[in-house]
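Thread amino acids onto this structure.
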């Protein structure tokens, strides 16, 4: 087993996707199963680590926008999180050339002192939840080490359950339950969702009853909400609030590509102010004729309005077709009468 650093360069999106999709990509075949990986990204002038994991099995899943760059991809196991810390502490072991010695090419770290420094700093900052970097937040590059720690503490102390995206995720799950469907939620999201919604016994599935191959299951398991009837996905939802819209759409596109003969209705759920961005992404040439016909936009407001209906068990899930908007037809979003 080797210890390595996987550097996402300045791509915060790729960094977040690695954790969301639980997959790591490399340009060469050096990294192997059971290698310990510290995931880092450059934010401003700092190279920050917020997670580590061990590599698991080989996979063909490449969910990043530039996925073709990665010839060697593996799923993750034993994920651990920490408050983001600057890995320049490695200069204590490697001197001024520490970045060349330990980062380039995700090479194995042979210096025990360097491995110990990473391990000790990670343990000192270890937490039980992942802190994603926000793509649109310009303040992080300007703050110093103490301010970075304070920001991380703030993110930890603010209850994740107050985030609109978690509330909407819970609301979608509640609607699906009310309509009589079984609900799937990503395992990493469940504790936060259950703090704002208490499901009925057995309504949230512990395992997916789907006869898909491993790559498809790894994609499906990370979709924000699924409504399932027997062994069929009735509806799939990606909730996009402050994270990259592209990552959610890409998950949906992966699902459609992996199961081209199965018709799945999918929805990107986002605030109204992000509608135009969703439409732009769905209208990309790469998605327009594959994903766009079966994936639509639904606003937070429409979801919240639907949740207010008192007799959900008598409402058909096809009502979502009236509440959603397609990038191909640009019809007006409906309302419930």
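Threaded sequence (337 positions):
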């Amino acid at each position: 087993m080797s210890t390595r650093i996987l550097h996402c360069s300045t791509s915060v999106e790729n960094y977040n996707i690695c954790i969301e999709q639980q997959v790591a990509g490399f340009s060469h075949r050096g990294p192997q199963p059971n290698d310990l990986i510290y995931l880092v990204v450059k934010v401003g002038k700092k190279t920050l680590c917020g997670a580590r994991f061990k590599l698991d099995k080989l996979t063909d899943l490449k969910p990043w926008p530039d996925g073709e760059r990665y010839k060697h991809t593996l799923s993750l196991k034993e994920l651990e999180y920490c408050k983001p810390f600057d890995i320049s502490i490695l200069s204590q072991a490697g001197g001024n050339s520490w970045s060349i010695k330990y980062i380039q090419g995700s090479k194995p770290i042979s210096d025990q002192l360097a491995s110990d420094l990473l391990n000790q700093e990670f343990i000192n900052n270890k937490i039980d939840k992942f802190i994603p970097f926000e793509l649109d937040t310009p303040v992080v590059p300007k703050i110093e080490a103490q301010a970075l720690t304070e920001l991380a503490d703030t993110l930890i102390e603010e209850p994740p359950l107050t985030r609109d995206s978690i509330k909407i995720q819970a609301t979608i799950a509640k609607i699906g339950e009310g309509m009589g469907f079984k609900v799937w939620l990503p395992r990493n999201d469940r504790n936060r969702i259950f703090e704002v919604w208490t499901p009925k016994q057995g309504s949230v599935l512990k395992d997916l009853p789907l006869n898909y191959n491993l790559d498809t299951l790894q994609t499906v398991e990370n979709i924000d909400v699924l409504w399932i009837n027997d062994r069929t996905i009735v509806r799939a939802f990606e909730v996009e609030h402050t994270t990259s819209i592209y990552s959610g759409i890409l998950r949906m596109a992966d699902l459609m590509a992996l199961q081209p003969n199965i018709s799945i209705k999918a929805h990107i759920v986002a605030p109204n102010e992000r509608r135009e961005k969703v439409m732009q992404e769905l209208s990309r040439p790469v998605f327009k004729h594959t994903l766009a016909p079966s994936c639509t936009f639904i606003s937070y407001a429409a979801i919240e309005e639907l949740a207010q209906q008192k007799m959900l068990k008598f409402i058909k899930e096809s009502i979502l077709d009236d509440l959603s908007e397609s990038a191909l037809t640009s019809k007006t979003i409906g309302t419930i009468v």
